[in-house]
Write a structure and sequence with these properties.
Elements lengths: L6 E6 L4 E8 L3 E9 L1 H5 L6 H23 L8 E7 L3 H18 L3 E5 H12 L7 E6 L4 E8 L2 E7 L5 H11 L6 H9 L24 H16 L6 H27 L3 E5 L6 H13 L3 E3 L3 H4 L4 H12 L20
Helix pairs in contact: 2-3, 4-11, 5-6, 5-7, 5-8, 6-8, 8-9
Bound molecules: 5'-O-[(R)-(carboxyoxy)(hydroxy)phosphoryl]adenosine and zinc ion.
Zinc ion binds next to helix 4.
Length: 341
């Protein structure tokens, strides 16, 4: 008996990417259209919320039309509409939510609000068809650093999170400090290739009494102090060494936390997700640490690490199977917590 195909049109607009995708049965991505606003926000050194909302409004219809066309589908072929409704920038989220509601209402389709972090985690299902919960996942992006126990589809336990800056945010701030520009992650990664990761011993912050939590603002301050100290002494700084040493400090902290969770929960699968998960040094360090412990390591391709709608379609499918449906009162929730409904 062949499985019925559930086709989901997914929409993502929580930050600076306007995205739509057609995903079949959660793991088969028929199209994944992303219109990035990064060049626009680069002018200002970071995301400007008002500009993000306006650009989402201008682009969303075309992005959806392209996603449907590339998939060879029409709205009439869809079984549900999934949309990111939080967390994120409220004005940006609202554009996607309003669009999804309008389409679902007009086409009499079920509407499913998806948590953005659940989307990032679910990006791992797309290229790893065999991956199923339970597993551990480290979600590292510009807005989040969460160590999560994925107990089942839609069932999450947050073991730890950042108490200050997110890992990606630290990359962005340090990149700005050494004049590399926005977004910092890919630029630091490239610069770090020319540097010595052991040149500067930056601190690996721990959070007292909360071993699974992260703190990156101390590390960021240590980098800024190092730069200012050198300036005051009239010394040249080696940007490549700063980038490599900073990246190593972040990666070491992430890997340490991840392996602590592996030891405590004895899980044999570990996945990473979010923009920072596209970092090569981080992937390699995780791969090596997982291999040592006999843990299978998963990560999405870079295009599925940063914001996209395919991951929202993957998460939306399991929400759909779990019977989750939203009403016409679905609203954007900028500080939505994982597992909250
Ligand atoms: O997942 P994402 O696109 O958006 C959020 O949900 O936040 O992540 C964007 C973040 C930015 O902070 C960016 O600097 C970081 O991910 N990032 C990276 C890399 N590529 C993107 N950080 C480190 N290395 C990279 N290669
Ligand atoms: Zn994201």
């Amino acid at each position: 008996m062949s499985e019925k195909e559930i086709k989901i049109l997914a929409i993502e607009s929580s930050c600076d990417e306007t995205a739509a995708a057609v995903v079949v049965n959660g793991r088969d991505v028929r199209s994944n259209t992303i219109s990035t606003q990064i060049p626009l926000h680069t002018l200002y050194g970071g995301v400007v919320p008002e500009i993000a909302s306006r650009k989402h409004t201008e682009r969303i219809n075309q992005v959806i039309a392209t996603a449907l066309e590339e998939a060879g589908e029409t709205l009439d072929d869809m079984d549900a509409i999934a949309v990111t409704y939080g967390p994120g920038l409220v004005g940006a989220l609202l554009v996607g939510v309003a669009e999804a509601k309008a389409i679902a209402f007009a086409k009499h389709l079920p509407l499913i609000g998806v948590h953005h972090i659940e989307g990032h985690i679910s990006a791992n299902y797309i290229e790893n068809k065999e991956l199923e919960p339970p597993f551990l996942c480290l979600v590292v992006s510009g807005g989040h650093t969460h160590l999560v126990r994925v107990k089942d589809y839609g069932d999450y336990e947050i073991l730890g999170r950042t108490v200050d800056d997110a890992a990606g945010e630290a990359f962005d701030k340090v990149a700005r400090a050494i004049g590399l520009g926005y977004p910092g992650g890919p630029k630091i990664e490239k610069k770090a290739l020319e540097g010595d990761a052991n040149a500067i011993p930056f601190p690996k912050a721990k959070v007292a009494d909360h071993p699974y939590d992260f703190s990156f603002s101390g590390l960021k301050s240590a980098v800024l102090n190092y730069i200012n100290g050198a300036k005051m002494k009239g010394e040249e700084v080696n940007e490549a060494d700063i980038a490599a040493s900073f990246q190593k400090a972040v990666v070491d902290a992430l890997v340490d936390h991840a392996m602590m969770a592996v030891d405590e929960f004895g899980c044999d699968k570990f996945a990473i997700a979010g923009g920072v998960a596209s970092n090569g040094a981080f992937r390699e360090a995780m791969r090596a640490a997982c291999e040592k412990k006999g843990v299978k390591f998963y990560h999405p391709s870079p295009i599925l690490c940063t914001d996209n709608a395919a991951m929202i379609g993957a998460a939306g499918y399991y929400d759909y199977l779990n019977g989750r449906r939203d009403g016409w009162d679905l609203n954007a929730v900028p500080n939505l917590k994982l597992g909250e409904r």
